[in-house]
## 1
Amino acid sequence: MKEYLLSEQFALISLDGMDVLHDTAAKKVALSGIAMADAIQKMISDKDISDISSFGEKLAGEIDRIKSMSKKEGAELERKMVSILKAREVLTEIPNILGCDMNYYTANVTMREYRSDPAEYQGIVENIRAEILEPGEVSLETVCLLYLCRETGCMHDIFSVEEQEQIQRRMMELMGREPLYKVLLETEFHSGIRNAYLGFLRAKTNLFKNPYLEGVNLLFPFLDRKQAIFIDMIIAGTTVEERRKKTIEFLRKNGHVCEEVPIGSESFVKVDNKYYRIWPSTRSNKIPIQGIELLPVYM
Amino acid sequence: MSRQRTMEKIMQSEYVSIGELVRITNCRYSTLKFYTEEGLLEFEQEEEKLTRRFPRERAVSRINEIMKLKKEGRNISEIKNILSSL
């Protein structure tokens, strides 16, 4: 794994799966997180961060600055960070998975999204997971990344519901042990509306632990980075393996990195850095169209 | 309060944490945890709630051996038998 600054690590996590061309709500949140990561990076690079009250004041000042960040400043930050990561060959632009949905695909709609290098993305995420879920010391950088993920709603993308509960307990424990962590974790920089949106995503993740409810995601594709899509194909007389193979072939043809990942008794499909389940389905138009739903997996 | 070590420092040290082992080998945390629980990776731990310390060189070469055997199609119990007979 390469060496990254805090802001670069967080950008690789938060920009993954984000729309390149449009200014979405999720991208705005990610950019404010990147700006915050940049500010925290500078603050923790100071030799002396033992003055907790001064750290808290600086943090509050940075939050005020980031909250009032203009659209232009956000776009400039995105351009700067994307060019750094592209130069390091760890961020690419690929066609958006929504473009593989039957309605978009047949209408020739082009959408693009960012994809973080899968190995680097996995390295960063697994390092966070290893530090926070293992007994013993947790580094300041990991606590900062968890804080940024919490504030920008990336937690449900990375951690399972059980892991999120463990992390919450661990963070409480760390806050009790380390005053700096307490100041950091008690400072919130998301807005009320964003808070409601994050609450909705959390509730959705909990709800979709039941695989039969995952299709509801079709109603809210714009709220999440994982998007449920429908790919038309002949289902009658095919086996699960044939459908999986055909789906992977189709997605690869459209520029996505796909692999089959067996987890327990089920096989999921990893598309770019997200996990999906293949579900045979039919769309009812004038005539019923057979196909598969590619449903995001919430573990 | 600890700080994340640079790759250069990790590569110079005798012992590493499981998070650092993830960074060096690009393996998943759950994979390394599983190997540890199966007794395939040795570690030192002063107390139950303290960080597990893995001897870097031995752990990395052991992980590479396991990966190689997995690519050959061996399952975990076969890998355990092979590695314990070495």
## 2
Amino acid sequence: MLSVDDLHLAAGPRELVHGVSFTLTPGEAIGLVGESGSGKTLTCRAILGVPPPGVTVTGGTIALAGEDVSRYTRRQWDRVRGTRVAAVFQDPASYLNPSLTVGRQLDEVLRVKNGLSRRDARARAVELFASMGLHRPEHVHGQYPYELSGGMLQRVLIAIAVSGDPDLLVADEATTALDVTVQAEVLDLIAGLRERRRLSLLLVSHDLAVVAQLCDRVVVLRDGRVVESGPTRQVLDDPADPYTRALVADHREYGLDRLVTR
Amino acid sequence: MTAALEADGVEVWLGRRATSRILDGVGLTAPAGQIVGLIGETGSGKTTLARAIAGLAPLHAGAVRVDGVPVSGLRGAELRRFRRTGRVQYVFQDPLRSLDPDLTVAESVAEGLAVRGDGRAADRRTAAVAALRLVGLDPALGDRLPGQISGGQRQRVTLARALAVGPRVLLLDEPVSALDAANRNHVLRVLDRLRRERELAIVLITHDLGSLAGVADRIVVLHHGRVVEEGPATQVLLAPEHPYTQRLIASVPSIDGPRPIYARSTT
Amino acid sequence: MRALRLAVRLPSARVALAVLGVVVVLMAVGEWLAPYDPLHQDTTAILAGPSAEHWLGTDYVGRDVLSRLLAGSRLSVIAAAEAVGLGLLLGVLPGLASVYLGRVFEWLSLRVMDGLMALPFIIFAIAVAALLGNGLHQAMFAVGVLLAPTFYRVTRAAAGGLRQAQYVEAATLFGATRWRIVRTHVWQKVLPTVVVTTATAMAGALLVVSSLTFLGIGVQPPAPTWGGMLASDLGYLSQRPFGPLAPALLIIVTVAALNALADAITVDPATSTKEAHDAVRR
């Protein structure tokens, strides 16, 4: 599905990611973890074809369904994005136009990407909103971004992301800014979408517990290199690399897990 | 014995209408040397409560006392004089926005002392360095601008700024929710030490119950502007009574594996 | 502050500063550089073209154009600076005060500024000249008063956003006075905006001084100014078609330099590189 092989990223002369490799099979979920500066967000943005300004792929390949996309042009990306790979990020509000209703923004995507008529697009949009667990989807369709809570906006963004029926969903800190109960709901939603749509998932998070909720495998990054990867339970319960051990120990030092055994 | 911080019957209204209350008769007590966790989600009023205690939001009813002395009625020069004692300090949620981008870290940390007029610039600089050390930061960061340090460091700078003036009561709004585990632990350890060594009364506001385990002495749960549950931390975390608290706890993700699907059924 | 420092590194800002530097030098020592007395009439050479004696030719009464331009720089620039200075004083201080002194002052100052903004520029200047006498200082007083709302508005806009800034709240919690907050937190953020506005206002004021003197308001004829020269030269366009070129070019180049400088400060290279830097860090 997704195969990242020896990926190097650099900003000018400074190399930031030094040969990251991992593969994601159809329907699988991988968690990309590491502290800030580990290169997890850079890697994820390169996979989406939107590296930060000044950062370029200097080596290696990113294969989406067998095709190397790492040197794709903008136009080639337009074809792939939404239909093969889609993404949600930490701050949903900044990805929506504040002066258009959220429904209209999803309609637009459906009409351009899926070639639906105005009426069909609207019907499909309401359907999608409903399947995202948004109550009163018709009503939400006519609301502006400022009228919705952070959790609702993230659901709208997920609806837009999956509207093109992608094979891979990238979630970059998508639940970090949400309240715990809302985070739990959104994680449940993503878990449900994976099952129903056979979505592959690339989850980027600094919170190991979030990764533990959804992912089959974990890739641990440090300073632009993979230090460890493997099945989630193996990496989190019995980390082999000292850095991963430190991450897990840090995570366990405080938190509910100290008190409650579940 | 009077607690370092006592707030009772706090009401804050939205605008001037008593019908829309952000806080509706909330009480909060923080004795010296204790960490009180204030739990609440978006819209619960937790930030408003902290702002009201700090005097940044107007109280429509209720009182705030620091070491038994009422402070919520102070105005004008009297209020300024009280504030210059630095007894109540508030650490904002977003460290980037709460640091002036044009001031160096040391200037920001020393600001409270400069306002108060303590010592000469060199003395204040020394005090700022001490405060940076207290929160585990390299004093060499003092010459940097907020844009030149990491998010975790900025969070500790705002903590150092509050500590520099020697507070009795420290209010922290979501100090760890945006941090990765290593930075979170660091901040929590600093707070734990401050409570023991400096007898600070600390109010730790967070939406994440999990981060309070092992740190908080007491926990107060705020929901829609009211306290729904309150008690010793272990009791609230292990045997929550109110359904809302139960749901909060069930929503906290665990590193040990997927949480039973719980949140979905209760929304 | 950083915006100002960084802007100076841009080539366009450097060229603009160089041009303005020359204008300032002309203003300071132009009178002494002038080869002739700007008021001396050479009746043997009226409306003469450029020559070895008169590099830029002579005007309709035989005065040396180069000398008049050099001497005129001082009057024109000083007049514009006077107007802008008054505008700064009457605009920036009330602008800051309207944000930090409370509602009553805010309401009052807003109404006064709205009133001023409704007045048409040149007509107000003429009216003031009629009332206070036709002199350069009177005219510049009028222009300065009318520039005040611009400064008031931009200062208010820049400072108003900071009223709720968390670092301002943090300072309030330390017991800082409003004056201290303005000094340590607000002023640095407002300064670049004020500098930009000053540069554009200076450009505008130069044009207004030129138009007013062109209309014969402010400076009485024999005294040389750029606008006055432009006006008199235009009258003899058929005899000396290139005549207005020199004063017009001087006005255009100076105004363009001021605007270019303002642009350079607004286009802050720091923000774009900082964003890239932040993205890399994450």
## 3
Amino acid sequence: MSITATRAEPTGAAATRRGPGRDLRRTSRWHTLRALKGAAFAAPFIVGFLFVFVVPVGYAVYESLFSERSSGLGIGGQERVFVGFDNFTRGLQDGAFWASVGRVLVFACFQIPLMLSLALGMALLLDQLATRTAHRFRLAFLVPYMIPGIVAALMWMYLYSPRLGPLTGVLELVGVDADFYASEMLWVSMGNLLTWHGVGYNMLIIYGALRAVPREVFDAARVDGAGELRIAWSIKVPFVRGALVLTGMLAIIGMLQIFNEPLLFRQVAPETVTKSYTPIMLIYYQAFDSNDYGYAAALSVILALIVGAISFLFYRFTNRAPS
Amino acid sequence: MTATRRRPEPGEELPVGTRQSRFSRILVLVGLGALVLYSIAPVWWLVVSATKDQRDLLYTNGLWFGDFNLFQNIEQVLEYNDGIYLRWLLNSLLYATVGGLVGTLIALAAGYSISRFQFPGRGLLLGAVIGSFLIPYAMLTMPLYLLFSRIGLVDSVWAVLIPSFISPFSVYLAKVYTDGAVPEEIIEAARIDGAGELRIFFQIVVRLMSTGGATVFLLSFVQNWNQFFLPLTMLRGEDKWSLNLGLYFWNSKRVEAGVDLTALVLTGALLSVIPLVIFMVAMQRYWRTGVTLGALK
């Protein structure tokens, strides 16, 4: 029995650890029995995991090989037929699907760096404060994160509303005529909403990484005469690079699956936010609007592969870059 | 995160050797102030709006109070459509609490098992747990909908509860916590004293893991409270909806039917947020460690 040592004590409890506590006199049969008992603790999870993860993924792949076809003159209703990889060829050639993927990725290229810069800025500013003050500010920054995504989206939809929201009026005062629901502004509106809602969470991770750096490093730089800005840029940022890579990756994975916010904005701007605005919206409407489960399943498999590929590339790319 | 991490004392002043000019200190505070304003102002607007009636919402300044109608609004929210709002609130609590509790227990057992026992397939299990983070939720929810409709679970509370029992992220967190908080010596000692494995788990491991368990529960509670896609897909009858789904529906009705439910939606949104925010502020120590730990490990 070997215990893999971890690097940190999450609860702060000073748990002592020791090497393999194997007693050689015990028989191997006894060990097998104990291992089986140990595995039994994981059994409820394994059964549930099979039911809620493995079977659905398998079923999605299976379903993607079938299609609903109207039989004969369309009188006999729908009929399920095996179509092989037809759904996949159709998906790979589906302009609307790739447009939705591209739309989301382009959006991600703007929104994610902005949000992460803001989160990094928050973390660096907090780091300049005495601990107790920093904690008060941190709590304020986390308020948006405590609000459910749907409620946050609803709230901003009203804030953007030309009739009800204060934003249009405030911007008019400074001479800007903004229509947040207009098609060219919609990504800006949605980007601001996502940034507002997500920045606290990312700040928390980056700030956590920053506080884990031994303070002596910064003190040494100060003794050497480095200014605070220089320390922030040349020492603190490189130290939290890992956290930035991770938050960036999580944000990209989340962005490829964006659904709630555009669905809500569809209520106010249905011409702009079409049924194929984002990949998941397209899949959702294919399944539950057009009842084309096979095609929706094929698209979800393709999307899963895209998510996997992009995560892999992002990880390789950012890990290779010189620090 | 290493053992060299130093916890600053509460109230500790700026690090030694900091030579911040008055100007840069002011700059830092201005930056922080602007960011606080950005984070809080929208919530302030929601609070103010929930106190206004339909007319004041349209004709008064959004950032300051008009006639104080908060209690009338709350009454309206609670009475609308035979008190369906309360029903949604209870449903949300049910999904979040039961889903969170059962999910946490399952996750603690699985995390303990992966952390402390060598059984065949252990590596595979851990790999599957981590790999599943990458699966798009639509890829799971849709086939799950088809499966649940075959066995007649669609449009029942189980369609939402069962998937929330199984959280790979919770298992991963529970494993990390077990690695750190459960000394092997105590378990060995209990075994030598003749305690059975079940008893060791429930009487020793679960107690040692109280902090970790609380964190796992909190994070899954919040996740279950916030979920939208799963209930949207699975639930038809509005008596089983969660608050999120109900508010979404009220909002779509507001726009579609031309009935002005604005005050209803805004007050309902505020009411749905308050318990969660209080809960999270009170418990912030737990979920904060969970978020950073889960991300940085």
## 4
Amino acid sequence: MKKIRKEKRKKGISIAFCMAVYLFLFLPIFVVVANSFNATTSKPYLSWKGFTFDWYVKLWSNSSLLESFANTMIIALTSTLLSTIIGTLGAVGIYRYKFKGKGVINGLLYIPVVIPEIVIGIALLTIFSNTGVPRGMLTLILSHVSFCVPYVIFNVRARLSGYDSSIEEASMDLGANRVVTFFEITLPVLAPGIAGGALLAFTLSIDDVIISYFVNGQTKTYPLKVMESIKSGVSPDVNALSTLILLGTIGLVILTQSGILSGKHNKV
Amino acid sequence: MGTIVEMIGVNKRYGSNHVVKDLNLIVNEGEFLTLLGSSGCGKTTTLRMIAGFEEPTTGSIKVEGVPVEEKEPYERNVNTVFQTYALFPHKTIFDNIAYGLKMKKVPKEEIRERVLEMMDMVQLTGFEKRYPSQLSGGQKQRVAIARALINRPRVLLLDEPLGALDLKLRKQMQLELKRLQKKLNITFIYVTHDQEEALTMSDRIAIMHDGIVDQLDTPTEIYEHPATRFVATFIGETNTYDGCVTSITDGIATITLENGAVKVKCDESFSILEYATVSVRPEKMRFAKEPHEGFELVAVVKDYIYVGSVLKCIVSLPNGNGLKIERLAGQELPEIGSRIYPYWEPADAVLMHNDSYKIFKILDEIKLA
Amino acid sequence: MDGKRSKHEFRSNTLPAVVTVGPVSLLLLFLVVAPLVFVAVMSFCGTDEYYNVVYSFTAENYGKLLSVDYLKIYARSLLISFITTVLCVLIGYPFAYIIARTKSKKRQLLYMLVIIPFWTNSLIRIYGWRSFLGNSGWLVKALQFLHIIQEPVDFLYKTGTTVLGMVYCFVPFMVLPLYTAIEKLDGSLLEASSDLGAKPVRTLFEVILPLTSGGIFSGCIMVFIPCLGYFFVSNILGGGNTDMIGNLIERQFKSANNWPLGAALSIILILLTLLLVKLYQRLGGDMESLGV
């Protein structure tokens, strides 16, 4: 069967190509994971000196590394919470009400999305420094909220586009006021979009290097800590922490992709 | 009339799912053949195997006497009209219709000429520059047909092409398709689940059921002489009774049913004490106020349903089974609740072999054990 | 009657509109509009000898940006971004096509395997490349072991390394919009094309590419523009040999401390972005598909 053989060859090429791309995507991650088990103790910590779990133990006594990780988590959680609240309210408001300047707001939302991060970073830096806002945790959180909100709004808006507003009218017809209706009807229906937006905000915040780099002051986030130590050689305990974070990421990806957070049973 | 498509021992399996079972089908040149069946019966898969979108697991398909299993869809001289039309949304109507000719590298001038001629034939002149999204369902349908027909295929495959249209448009398109088919003298293989559509358009109908062709015959034969109980109930309305052949004289069998004996015309394939099914169309049913000779059925009139030109009469047999009788409206009818004696001309009913007697054998075996 | 009704609506809708849209408006005003306006203003300012910003109008910064050294860097930035974008399309398109056309169950797994690196910190992944490519890195060790090279070779600090890092960072940004576009592609159109006599290559150019061009355009926008500003990739992998506009801006704000000049550079980058986005919209690109 010539045709079947041809199909098989085509399939073989596809699989080989995919494997090559996945290898490309995962290669540096493997390197980081492998180096976290490297028994080397001399800079730049690259030559393989045997397998060890030592770095996973030493990690817990590297207080500046742990502090940077704690900063990252605090910033990510706070800015996710704030941007989710602001974004959800904003998406509902923009969708629901007619007001002057709606088009302007819609247009402005794309700015943090399309303008290169470095421009956003230096713009925030100049405004913070000229208004005398002390750079640190506060400016980091404000900055992260500013670039996360549009993504939350886009996610919630996608959910709203399939939303039948007559269910809200029904709720009010049955005696619920606006606030009760919002919490009883609007919010639960939009929940998957909100969860998706929040998740995106969280990952954007955790991953952010460029904007944080300009507005951080003396506060170090985890990526900035890594950046600082790259020139001198990154000690394997950083790899160890990165590996642990990777495990967390994988868990989160599996959780979302398997539909637990995307609300499969809650389709509009 | 020669053979144009031949399917020999074709099977299609998706994993453990046996969709088409040992199918043998011969399609004659120039005929309008319909594959009729409910969803999941394997009719679309059969069509897609002829088109080349699916490969048979085993068996052979020949078009014009040449095996085509090894050929890609673009190498086959058959074209398809898709259920969803599958018009290219980014191309104009002209470019959609011209697509096949462009692939064959037909000269530009000739393409233009043939496309315009085709558009005229399907009454779409003036729509050349429009895009599919600017057309109504019926117009899209015409484009899909024109796009396939312009290639002058030996066989045109149509997969429920009218499924998305409303009833009135459907009826109109049915006639138009039939007209095109006669005019161009192209073999049509048409897939539908709509029996009325199949009956009005087809030269022959293949009734598919569970991956098997139950009967392949002209519409009249299928309606008048269904080969299986499935065909009888699938095509049109019918009354069926299971019973046992108790005697055969001069080609007329007496069948004993739960509710009494009846008479049916039969052929030599039936023998006495065989389990069999009788099928009688509602319009062939008759009834009298006195018992009719050879028939022992007694029934009570339950209800009348008025459906335009005819009146449906629902009667019930002593065992509770319903029975449908059709009468032209305006005839004098017995009152609801009155007793009648249903009968029919033995030649108007069909006798079919019934495999379900096998259950009794199994029961017997269980009892013996 | 009409007037009465709208008055009523006005009264009942003002408060909820303010409550919902107010916060996001304030945020956009103070954290997006104001900073950018400020950058624009600063780009026309000068500095004193201690590099403090002096608020007086001058076009000097823009003049400096026209010097040959800078023009070279713009050209290099555009070239690197362009090569990166092209490579991302060449790798990303077939890849996205294969995963988007895989049968349902496996597809989810394949998609997940793209998301995992995408969600892992880009800096850490770039650092992984550095460890892999460096002169005592694994690639060199492997090549030495295989006797392909004798002496250690440093793969870092080359234009190619920067491009590799950029492609690496941005391939997922290309794959995701393409995946969405290809997944939406109706399979029966491909069958129709084949049925009408088109060989697979013809189907690719006549049907598949035109119908997924939206995904390609948005992928290109999402790769080309941020690539210009990803200074840390060229810092870490290019080591100052492959400076791009992003590196220039970074230096003005961090080490050289000439903020007005950096601001002017940023304005150039903004204008370039707006130009490309306009072009994207002209090509029929949809803004919504830019916010993955």
